[in-house]
Specification:
NAD(P)_epim/dehydratase; alpha/beta; globular; single chain; NAD-dependent epimerase/dehydratase family protein; 7-stranded parallel β-sheet; 12 helices; Rossmann fold; 12 strands; about 350 residues; UDP-galactose 4-epimerase, domain 1; L-threonine 3-dehydrogenase activity; 3-stranded mixed β-sheet; binds serine
Length: about 350
């Protein structure tokens, strides 16, 4: 008998950790955590099993296929946008081949289980690429299909994987003679920058806001790598987890597209610094632009249009800017770093 589980890849990342906490509290299917690094000790009691391994290791994926009945895959493992630019081909292997490996696992599972396995995939505002700051300033909140010309390896990878997921969901091996086939139930979210009170991201380009917050809470100076006027949308981590779970739980018939924008509030780096100073009056925040990272953020939209998610599956964030800083980020950070 194969053990029935939900699989989380990239389980040790920021989103993975939040997802494990929420899913284990809700008591649904037991969790199998997969990550390149050992799972954090405090999360171990929350999962049925945790495996240290690489999503490019086909033997490992074959082993998972033989041991487990996977009902849902939350495929979170990825190189983020800044890190991916240092080793673009390695990022492509993990972000694209890794995703195809997981989709292949999900389709094999769908076929022997004779029902579609759910595959939940976080994409990103990095899938957009606006040509210049004038266009960015004049643009309305972007819909999913606007300005899909990303300039980073990560953005190209995410955009392509959205398409490859749609292919596995609707058109996989469409010319092969088949009796009855079950495809993957692929669902994807495009996240804005995410901010967690518990963890700092590693290797992203929207990291300047979480970094300035965590530095202030630790009483350390911080130099933002983008200009004060740099503006993109953000979301508090609890809303990111809420949106992943809500999309995963939505009835298939309600979904009219495979990719949905979700967002909460738009913030300039200077406005973020002001919020941080209100919570931590001794914060020492300066601005020291990194030209390359700045260029990446300048191609990302200031606002996302998430009306399709609101319409199809009732998406609504709990944390606007005020609540995110004053009821979640600042109080939790103060408590965390006081001990
Ligand atoms: N936050 C991510 C990054 O900066 C984008 O999805 O890479």
């Amino acid at each position: 008998m194969r053990k029935r589980i939900s699989l989380i890849t990239g389980a040790n990342g920021e989103v993975g950790q939040g997802l494990i906490r929420d899913l284990s509290d809700s008591g649904d299917a037991p969790l199998l955590a997969l990550d390149i690094k050992p799972l954090k000790d405090e999360l171990r009691p929350r999962v049925m099993n945790s495996i240290e391994g690489n999503i490019l290791d086909q033997d490992l994926l074959d082993y998972l296929n033989s041991q487990y009945e996977i009902t849902t895959v939350f495929h979170l493992a990825a190189f983020l946008s800044t890190r991916a630019e240092f080793t673009p081909e390695a990022a492509h292997r993990v972000n694209v081949q890794g995703t195809i490996n997981l989709l292949q696992l999900a389709i094999e599972q769908s076929q022997w289980q004779a029902r579609p396995v759910k595959f939940v995939f976080p994409s990103s505002l990095a899938a957009y690429g606006l040509p210049d700051l004038e266009t960015k300033a004049a643009a309305p909140p972007l819909k999913e299909d606007d300005y899909n010309q990303p300039i980073t390896m990560y953005g190209c990878n995410k955009l392509y994987c959205e398409h490859i997921g749609r292919y596995y969901a609707n058109h996989y091996r469409q010319l092969a003679p088949q009796q009855e086939s079950f495809y993957v139930d692929f669902r994807s979210l495009r996240f804005p920058g995410l901010i967690s009170a518990y963890t700092v991201p590693s290797g992203g380009t929207s990291d300047y806001v979480p970094e300035m917050l965590h530095a202030a809470a630790k009483k350390q100076p911080y130099a933002s790598f983008v200009r004060p006027d740099t503006t993109i949308p953000f979301m508090a981590m609890p809303d990111a987890i809420k949106s992943l779970l809500a999309l995963a739980d939505s009835p298939r018939e309600a979904l009219t597209q495979t990719v949905y924008n979700v967002t909460s509030f738009t913030l300039s780096a200077e406005a973020a610094a002001e919020r941080v100073r209100q919570g931590f009056p001794d914060a020492q925040i300066t601005f020291a632009e990194d030209r390359n990272r700045q260029h990446i953020v300048d191609t990302w939209p200031a606002m996302l249009d998430d009306s399709a998610a609101r319409r199809d599956w009732g998406w609504q964030p709990d944390y606007d800017e005020e609540r995110a800083f004053n009821e979640y980020l600042i109080p939790v950070l103060k408590e965390q770093y006081s001990s």
